[in-house]
Specification:
Layout (H helix, E strand, L loop, with lengths): L5 H47 L6
C-alpha cells in the first residue's frame, strides 16, 4: 500500500497540478492548430472549386 507522508503527498499534488496545467495549455494549442487547419482546408476547397469552374481547359 502507499505510505506517503504529508510532504510527499504535497509534492505529488504539485507535480500533478503542473502536469494538468501543461496538458491544458497543450489542449488549447491543439484547438488553435485545428482551427487553422480547418480554415486552410476550406480555403483549398474554395480554390479547387474556383479552378474547376474556371474553364481554362486544364
Amino acid at each position: 500500500m502507499w505510505a506517503l507522508n504529508e510532504e510527499e503527498l504535497k509534492a505529488r499534488i504539485e507535480e500533478m497540478e503542473k502536469l494538468l496545467e501543461f496538458m491544458q495549455a497543450r489542449y488549447e494549442e491543439m484547438k488553435r492548430d485545428n482551427e487553422l487547419l480547418r480554415r486552410a482546408i476550406e480555403e483549398l476547397r474554395r480554390e479547387n472549386e474556383r479552378l474547376k469552374g474556371g474553364g481554362d481547359g486544364r
